Structure formats: structure tokens, C-alpha cells
């Protein structure tokens, strides 16, 4: 809530309190009338009691209670519906949250996106907001006896363009037809502007003993540990083997994306990729 809104809230509150005080003063002036009214009510109550009315009143209360009990399952299912709708709305709102920004071949990096970066000792950089959990994950992985290495992290637009052009040049050298070069390159290197690495929330992590970016990674001790534990630190394997149709990216058992602990837990438990978690697939 903004400071201005808070001020508005306090002003409204003061106004209401003022009205209440004024009403209270008027009530004080009419005290004799209140006493007379109370006496009349007591007389009427006495008549009801004498006529045996207590049983009826109690009966009505019991009936009313029974109706409430009978109605409660409906009310509770109504609550469930509203909870479901609230959680849906929450997910929609979360689409705008920094840790759930969706970047894929159909959703480019938001314009002028410039995360605040924290630089790692090996020169890699990540969005500062996910740095503490990344550091913890790396520390715990090493403490478990493994040897992880972050070989790619934040990339500028220029860096992504250079990688893409390199890939295109290599394809041309290998004899790829010119009209297919761009599409072929995009299968392996994200088209500039559509790489998650440009968010500063994506990392390529490999095992020091096996640094090739291919499916062999999934068998390394580091990947085995990360696949089992990364969600606890808010990271998910972003491009699972069976989700390529949805993510638009081939299986990459080395590319991790920070989504936050809550989302990572839900995605891990339910085997969802980010598109599915956000309901965009
Ligand atoms: Zn990557």
C-alpha cells in the first residue's frame, strides 16, 4: 500500500471516529428516554415469560441452529469454489512476478529487462535475488561430495546474438541449406531475445568430470543430485525430456531455472514445466 493510500486510510478512520463520538454525545443527552425504554422492555419480557414463551424462543433457536448445520456443507463447497477461483487469480497475478517471468520461443524477454546482477567468482553472473539460494544449493551439493560447475548464466542480448550467429556460421560450414539455417540454429540456440539466460535466472550446471552439454549429463553424480534436490532451493530443470512440445526447447539435463521455492515444489511434485504451472500451454 502506498504512503498516499495509507494517509487516505487514516483520514477515513479519523472521520469515522469523529462521527461515533458525536453520536455518543447525543445518546448521553437522551439518557432519561433510554431508562424509560429499558423499563418498558423489561415489563414486556416479564409478560412473555409468564405466558410460557421461553420454550418457543429456545425451540426457534434450536431450529435455526439445525438449518445452519444443514446448510453448512453447501457453504463449505462455496468456500472451496471461491478458494479455487482465488488460487487461479493468484496464478494469473504471479505471471507478473519476477521469478515466474515466462520466456520461451513465443514469449520474448520483456523490453529493457535489466536485472541487478551478482557476479560469481568464476565470472558468471545471476539475478541478485536468486543468488543466496543458488549459493546454498552449490554449497550443499559440494558438501554432499559432488563437484558442480556453473558454465553459463546471465547473457546480454549481444552475447545471445553472437552465440546464435556462431551457430548459424557452423551450420553453413556443415552444408546446411541457407533457407534452413535460421530454423536449424534456433533448435539448439535460443533466438536472441527469447533466451531465459537473458533473465539472469537460468543456469547451465555441469559435473566437472563431464562438461559436454548433451544427454550424458543426466547420468553424472552432480545431475543426479540436482534432479533430486534443486527444487528445495527454488530451481527446476526447465526443459525435461517429455515437455519439449510445450517448452519449445530440446531436453537439456543441465539447464536450471529459478522460479522460487513455492513454485518449484509444486512443479516438482506434479511434474509440471513452467508453461504448465502458469497454465499457458
Ligand atoms: Zn541454458
Write the layout of secondary structure elements.
Blueprint: H1 3-29, H2 31-50, H3 54-94, E1 117-119, E2 125-127, H4 131-143, E3 148-152, H5 157-173, H6 178-188, E4 202-207, H7 221-229, E5 235-237, H8 244-247, E6 255-258, H9 261-269, H10 274-278
Antiparallel strand pairs: 1-2, 3-4, 4-6, 5-6
Helix pairs in contact: 5-6
The chain binds zinc ion.
Using brief descriptors, characterize the structure shown.
single chain; 281 residues; alpha+beta; Muramoyl-pentapeptide Carboxypeptidase, domain 2; 2 domains; 4-stranded antiparallel beta sheet; two-stranded antiparallel ribbon; 10 helices; 56% helix; globular; binds zinc ion
Low-confidence stretches: 1-95
CATH topology of the largest domain: Muramoyl-pentapeptide Carboxypeptidase, domain 2
Q: What bound compounds does this protein have?
A: zinc ion
How many β strands by DSSP? Answer: 6
Radius of gyration: 32 Å
Largest sheet: 4 strands, antiparallel
Backbone shape: globular
CATH architecture of the largest domain: 2-Layer Sandwich
CATH class of the largest domain: Alpha Beta
Count of all domains: 2
Strand content: 5-15%
Tell me the span between the first and last alpha carbons.
Answer: 33 Å
Nearest-integer average pLDDT = 75
Description:
This protein has a four-stranded antiparallel beta sheet. Strands 1-2 form a two-stranded antiparallel sheet. The chain has ten helices and six strands; from the N terminus they run H-H-H-E-E-H-E-H-H-E-H-E-H-E-H-H. With 281 residues, it is an alpha+beta fold. The longest helix is centred in the first third of the chain and has 41 residues, at 54-94. Helix 5 crosses helix 6. The protein has two domains: 11-94, no CATH class; 99-155 and 195-278, Muramoyl-pentapeptide Carboxypeptidase, domain 2, CATH 3.30.1380.10. A hairpin with a 5-residue loop joins strand 1 (117-119) and strand 2. Zinc ion (ZN) binds next to strand 4.
Amino acid at each position: 500500500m502506498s504512503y498516499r493510500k495509507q494517509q487516505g486510510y487514516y483520514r477515513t478512520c479519523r472521520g469515522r471516529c469523529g462521527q461515533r463520538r458525536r453520536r455518543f454525545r447525543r445518546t448521553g443527552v437522551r439518557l432519561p428516554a433510554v431508562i424509560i425504554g429499558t423499563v418498558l422492555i423489561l415489563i414486556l419480557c416479564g409478560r412473555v415469560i409468564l405466558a410460557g414463551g421461553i420454550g418457543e424462543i429456545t425451540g426457534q433457536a434450536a431450529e435455526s441452529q439445525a438449518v445452519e448445520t444443514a446448510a453448512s456443507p453447501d457453504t463449505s463447497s462455496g468456500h472451496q469454489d471461491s478458494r479455487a477461483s482465488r488460487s487461479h487469480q493468484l496464478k494469473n497475478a504471479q505471471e507478473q512476478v519476477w521469478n515466474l517471468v515466462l520466456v520461451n520461443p513465443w514469449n520474448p524477454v520483456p523490453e529493457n529487462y535489466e536485472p541487478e546482477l551478482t557476479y560469481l567468482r568464476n565470472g558468471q553472473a545471476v539475478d541478485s535475488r536468486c543468488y543466496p539460494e543458488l549459493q546454498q544449493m552449490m554449497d550443499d551439493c559440494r558438501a554432499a561430495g559432488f563437484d558442480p560447475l556453473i558454465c553459463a548464466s546471465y547473457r546480454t542480448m549481444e552475447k545471445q546474438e553472437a552465440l546464435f550467429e556462431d551457430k548459424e556460421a557452423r551450420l553453413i560450414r556443415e552444408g546446411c541449406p541457407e533457407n534452413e539455417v535460421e530454423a536449424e540454429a534456433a533448435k539448439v540456440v535460443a533466438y536472441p531475445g527469447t533466451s531465459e539466460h537473458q533473465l539472469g535466472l537460468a543456469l547451465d550446471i555441469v559435473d566437472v568430470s563431464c562438461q559436454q552439454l548433451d544427454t550424458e549429463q543426466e547420468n553424472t553424480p552432480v545431475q543426479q543430485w540436482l534432479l533430486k534436490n534443486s527444487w528445495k532451493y527454488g530451481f527446476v530443470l526447465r526443459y525435461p525430456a517429455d515437455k519439449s512440445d510445450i517448452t519449445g526447447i530440446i531436453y537439456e539435463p543441465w539447464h536450471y531455472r529459478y522460479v522460487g521455492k513455492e513454485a518449484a515444489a509444486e512443479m516438482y511434485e506434479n511434474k509440471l514445466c513452467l508453461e504448465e504451472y502458469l497454465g499457458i500451454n
